[in-house]
C-alpha cells in the first residue's frame, strides 16, 4: 500500500496554529482508514530560522523537499524580516524549482457563509486555473533614463505556446474529470495583440481535442464584470499569471474571504512535489489570539489528498467543513462567531468521525 511522504512547513504567525489543526485532520483520517498511510516531516523554516541562520531554508532545502510527494505549507511573514526575503527565498524557489506551473484556486460558496449572492439560486462553484510560471511576471525588462524627462520602464510579458498549452490542457482535463461542460479563457487579444493572440491560439488548439467541452473566450475587463454579475455561470476559468492573480482575489472575495480560501501550486507531471497552502498570509494582527480560522489550511490539505489520488478523503474533508458551517454553531471571528482555531478544528474532526463511521 502506498504511504505518502508529506513535507510540512508551518511558517510564521498563524501558520503553525492553523497547520496544527490540519495535521490533526490527517491523523484522524489515518486512524480511521487503514488504506491511508502517510509520513509527515515538519520543517521549521521560517523567520526565526532566518534570524538564526541568515537564510530561509538550509542550502540543500530543495534537495530535501524533492524526496517528498507533497509540500503542505502554512504561511510566512514576520515584521522582523523583509517580506521580499520571506517570499523570494522560501516560497518562490519551491514554486520555480519544482515547476509548479499551475496555481489552482477553487471558488465555492459554502453554506452558512454570508455573501452578496445569498439570493442566487444556483451554486457558485468554479475553479481558477492560473498559469504560474510565465506571462506578465517574467522578470524581463528594465528601466532607462533615471531622473530624466523621458524616464521609462519596460516590462516584458512572456507567453509561450508550450506554457499556454500545458495550462489549457490542465484546465480541460480538470473540466473533464469533474464533469464540467465549459472552460472560460481570460484574454485581451483585442489590445495586447502579440502575447494574447498566441495565448488564444494555444488555448483553442487544446480545446479542439475536447469537443464535449465548450470554450468561451472573454476579455479580461468584461470577465471581471461577469464575475461580479453572474459568478454562478462559471465552471473552469483559465488565465495567464497576472490575469489569474487578479481573478483569484476577486473570486475569493465573492465567496467569503481569506479565512476559507485554499490554493494549490501544482506540478501536474508529478515529476516534482506540488505545494498546498492557504491563500492568506501569517496574519500577525491575530497571531497567538486563537482567532485564526483553520478552514483555508484544512481545505488546502483536502486539495493535497485529491492530488495524491485520494479524492474520497478530499471530498470527505470538504463535506465535513460544509456540515460544520451549515450548522453554524462553531464559527471563528472572521465568520461572525467566537470559536477559537482549535474549536473549529475539533468541530471538523468530530464531523469527520461521524461521516467515516457512517460509511463503514
Ligand atoms: P494576511 O493574509 O496575513 O492578513 C490579511 C487580513 O486577513 C488580516 O486582517 C488577517 O487577520 C486576516 N486573516 C488572514 N488569514 C486569516 C485566517 N485564517 N483567519 C482569520 N483571519 C485571517 O495578509 P497581510 O496582513 O497582508 O500580510 C501579513 C504577512 O503575511 C506579511 O508578512 C505578508 O508578506 C505575508 N503573506 C504571506 C503569504 C504566504 O505565506 N503565501 C501570503 C500573503 C501574505
Ligand atoms: Mn495575489
From TrEMBL:
Q: Which reaction does it catalyse?
A: (R)-malate + NAD(+) = pyruvate + CO2 + NADH
Q: Which ranges carry the Isopropylmalate dehydrogenase-like domain? A: 5-348
Top-level taxon in the UniProt lineage: Bacteria
One GO MF term on file is: D-malate dehydrogenase (decarboxylating) (NAD+) activity
Give the E.C. number(s): 1.1.1.83
Extract the SMART domains matched here.
Iso_dh (SM01329)
Known InterPro entries for this protein? ICDH/IPMDH, IsoCit/isopropylmalate_DH_CS, IsoPropMal-DH-like_dom, TTC_DH
Look up the record and name the cofactor or cofactors this protein needs.
Mn(2+); Mg(2+)
Q: Which Pfam families match?
A: Iso_dh
Q: Which terms are listed as keywords in the entry?
A: Lyase, Manganese, Metal-binding, NAD, Oxidoreductase
The text of the family note is: Belongs to the isocitrate and isopropylmalate dehydrogenases family.
Record's protein name: D-malate dehydrogenase (decarboxylating)
